[in-house]
Structure formats: structure tokens, C-alpha cells
Design brief:
With about 200 residues, this protein is of the alpha+beta class. It has five helices and eleven strands. Strands 8-1-2-11-10-9 form a six-stranded mixed sheet. It has a five-stranded mixed sheet with strand order 3-6-7-5-4. The N and C termini lie far apart (about 60 Å).
């Protein structure tokens, strides 16, 4: 930002303050009501997504939760008493994280470690996990015309936590990563406790 931009912003902010200070209570609340009901004129940033190819399905994750896409090869350490869809743990930036076969988790079947898996390091709510997928591609946004409610997917994936699937977009599952990550962590804890 140039010195001119900073000065212009400061003068605009100062004139806005003076304008608001000059309003009586009735005019202030009228002005606030108009602002609240006005259509925004600024460009709203479109959320970006990552489409993940799985062996049996495709799914979509918000790009904001992806910390890194790590190409193969990967070093996995096996652990006793883990869910069948979990491959083990792997190192990421000097941190040990759980490595989960996303397709196996969604299908609730045993994981298969393949040498060509891509590791997505995802992080949300202070949870960091590694999700293995077959391929990825970025998506600039979702066309609402291609988005459908999750009822069909919920029936097919009834064993997943409520809300884990937000909808279906062009045949791909749109995942709620917060619910998915929390569910994965809880299932890992339960398996370790009873294993």
C-alpha cells in the first residue's frame, strides 16, 4: 500500500467518524438499518475446494483446511489396535500424525497401502491428520446448480457421523471436514482404548 493509499484511507476513515458523530440517535439507527439491508458491493471471495479421487468415489474438501499435498513415497509406521481404515502414523514437519485411507474410512473397510497414494495433510479445530487419496485437483468454487442435498449419500453412508456429508456435487461427496476429522480422532481413541 502506497503512502497515498494510506493517507486516503485515513482521511476516509476520519470523515466517516465525523459523519457518524454528527448524527442524532434516530438518524444513526436509520443509517445503520440501511447499511444492514444493503446488498454488498464488494466482491465476496469464493471459497476454493480440492477434489479428491478415491478408489471407489470422489470427494470434495475445502482447500482452506489442506496444509500440504505430499506426493509419494511415504513412510508409514504400523501400530497395534488401530481402526482397519487407518494405515498407521507418518511424520509431517517433525510431527507424528495419523495416516488414514480416506476411501477405506468412508467405505468402512480395511485400508490398502498403495505406493502411489497422495498424502493430504489436513488441519482443523487443532486436529492434524494425513488422508491418503489417489489423485487431487483444485476447484475454484462450486456451481450451486450442480449441488444436491446429502439424503442419498446419508442413506448409503449411514455409519458416518451426522453431518459428515454436506451434499453431493456432480457425483462427488462434499465432506464436512470438521465432523470427519473429529469422528476419525474419536474412533482412533475408542479402538486404542478397547484394543
Amino acid at each position: 500500500m502506497s503512502e497515498y493509499d494510506i493517507l486516503a484511507t485515513a482521511l476516509t476513515d476520519q470523515s466517516q467518524v465525523l459523519f457518524l458523530e454528527g448524527l442524532n440517535d434516530q438518524d444513526f439507527w436509520h443509517y445503520a438499518t440501511e447499511l444492514a439491508s444493503a446488498t454488498p458491493t464488494t466482491k465476496v471471495e469464493i471459497e476454493q475446494y480440492l477434489e479428491c479421487e478415491l478408489e471407489q468415489k470422489r470427494c470434495i474438501l475445502p482447500l482452506a483446511v489442506v496444509r500440504e499435498v505430499v506426493p509419494p513415497p511415504h513412510q508409514i509406521t504400523l501400530l497395534p489396535s488401530i481402526p482397519a481404515w487407518m494405515l498407521g502414523i507418518t511424520a509431517w514437519r517433525s510431527e507424528a500424525i495419523a495416516a488414514v485411507d480416506l476411501d477405506a474410512y468412508l467405505m468402512q473397510c480395511p485400508a490398502r497401502l498403495r505406493s502411489d497414494y497422495i498424502l493430504l495433510v489436513v488441519q482443523q479445530y487443532e486436529i492434524t491428520l494425513g488422508l491418503f487419496v489417489t489423485a487431487v485437483r483444485s476447484m475454484p468454487g462450486l456451481n450451486l446448480e450442480l449441488f444436491s442435498p446429502p439424503e442419498q449419500a446419508i442413506a448409503e453412508y449411514h455409519y458416518l457421523s451426522v453431518g459428515a456429508i454436506s451434499g453431493i456435487y456432480a457425483g462427488a461427496l462434499v465432506l464436512d471436514t470438521g465432523i470427519i476429522l473429529t469422528d476419525i480422532v474419536e474412533l482412533i481413541r475408542e479402538t486404542a482404548a478397547y484394543g
